[in-house]
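Standup, Tuesday
Yesterday: got the pipeline producing structure tokens again.
Today: sanity-check two examples.
Blockers: none.

Example 1:
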Amino acid sequence: MRFITLLILLFSTTALAGAPATKVAILMFDKVQIIDFAGPYEIFGQAKFDVYTVSSDGKPVTTAMGLSVNPSHSFADLPPVDIVLVPGGNVQKIMHDKSVLNWIKNRKNDSEHILSVCTGSHILAQAGLLDDQQATTFHRALEGLAKDYPKVEVLHDRRFVDNGQVITTAGLSSGLDGALHLVAKIQGQDAAKTIAMHIEYDWDPSQGFVRGLMADRYLPDNDYQWPEDIQFERLAAFGDKGQWQNRYLAKTEATKEVLQAVYVKAMKAHDQWKSIPAEDGKLSWQATIDTQRWIHSFWLETDADAYLLHQQIKRD
């Protein structure tokens, strides 16, 4: 039995080695998010895919965090590919570039798979590739994608959405899941699991963690009329499906009472949130959302010449 198993494994490995490598093109543009392309690049490289980076003119691009990247190809000299990866980042400019949109539309005709990461889905949507399909994106961009592209069914509860040819993933690290999913489709589940273990990534194809389902999605989306001089620095933002907390350092000449009044006024604009008695200096409200009761609290602490601003939401 061991001999037969060894022969099967040897035959499979030999056949795979003799097959032409899957070819991947990764779209590069100014303000692209590093992990959106680098994470999948690692996955595809581990799978022995041929990976190319491409920009419209082949010239260097600067990522969202200032890293300079030299694409290996321009649109004009890129060889035929099997997979196109469209990462996200600051996509406001690139998603309206006609040469990029035309290139993506043409790749739909000659590529087997198109994978977006994070807000790269907005580029695909702008090119019309997501019409009448399901999709996901970065958790803070879900509502925007649904509003701007009503023909797209936007899903909040997935790390990736597979429509067959077109696959979209949620934010940032979700690109690893999308890339592993593609490897599994092409080389099999065992190959994808092996790569995930090699790079020490806790891959969960059942998509147990979905950023868009965390409790901060229930935080009131208010238009706060903060004093013009206020400056914010985010210190913490974390939680799970049942609770979330944000903490900011806020610098302003305004008094604590003024800041509290701004927040109370903003909360009054939301009928579902009802004020409840304050405890320990925390201003609090409650609301029933999706049959669950939630408590939202806001409080300030003085920190030298600034304030520590706290937001918290938790299931009651």
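Example 2:
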Amino acid sequence: MNLLAIESSCDECSAAVLKDGALKSVVISSQLIHSEYGGVVPELASRAHMELIVPVVEESLKKASASKEEIDSVAVTYGPGLAGSLIVGISFAKAFASSRGIPVVGVNHMEGHLYSAFLEDDKPEFPFIALVVSGGHTMLIHVREPFTHDLLGQTRDDAAGEAFDKVAKLLGLGYPGGPVIDKMAKEGDPKAFKFPRAFMDGDSFEFSFSGIKTSVLYLLKELKYDPDKPDEKLVRDICASFQAAVIDVLVAKAINAARKFGVKSIVVAGGVAANRGLRSALQASAEYIGAKAFFPRPLYCTDNAAMIGIAAHFKYLKTGMVTDLTLKPTPNLALSF
């Protein structure tokens, strides 16, 4: 089965081609204009998708050496995400499928992250614990088998990626904040400042990152920090201390979940999964308990159509279900449990 996958939930316009679950091509077009505004501007994002969707799909087909006539089905993200951006991807997918008389498979964006590790040659084994960490979500999931999973816990306020972006903004480091904080943390002292680690007592799998963000804010006020005249050493130490606190929480809960459910595979997905500090810490902790941590390569951690395609592949194998041409965007779509 040749599958065309489309992802347009936010500011990344992406298309991929998979054959029987094997990735043949993926193209991602990022919208750099949003960096000027310190965050994604929905109207600008949807307009950019309208301009990019056709050339991105054509490029993905070209890289896969596949023609439109060889595509057997189309997978597309229908939520969660920005309404305008989702509409562009869904409209194109339905038009493409209708013209070819092939099915459209609707995919939850979070399902894409959940199964993104299966794009790699070294794949996790079922059952596994999944830690999904991004700008909008932080959740811990017990995946018992394909498309059979249980939510163990999630953030009660800010997601981990959101906290990274907000702290970076406080420090005047720009948007997105995750990559720059990760880079500066490497040269800082993670013990320079003591930031809170929430919900670390007992067996709770819930998360909270608003407290650590507020602690950084109060510290900067106390130090009379001026983002226009930054102290480079201070910034590196704050980044290192902040990142260490976030990573401590993420790693501890993922390891506790793996122990509780007796699994040997821990999958980390979402934008924050590209963080080098998190990768190093979780790999070491997983090895210590006789488990293994699986991280998609950074390309598959961000929003991309390859992960939508692999999720659609698992969905097809599990249920055989396909959606029809009435598929609609669902901006607040939740992950089903």
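Quick observation on example 2: DSSP finds ten helices and ten strands in the chain. Strands lie at 2-7, 12-19, 22-30, 73-79, 104-108, 128-133, 138-145, 148-154, 265-269, 292-294.
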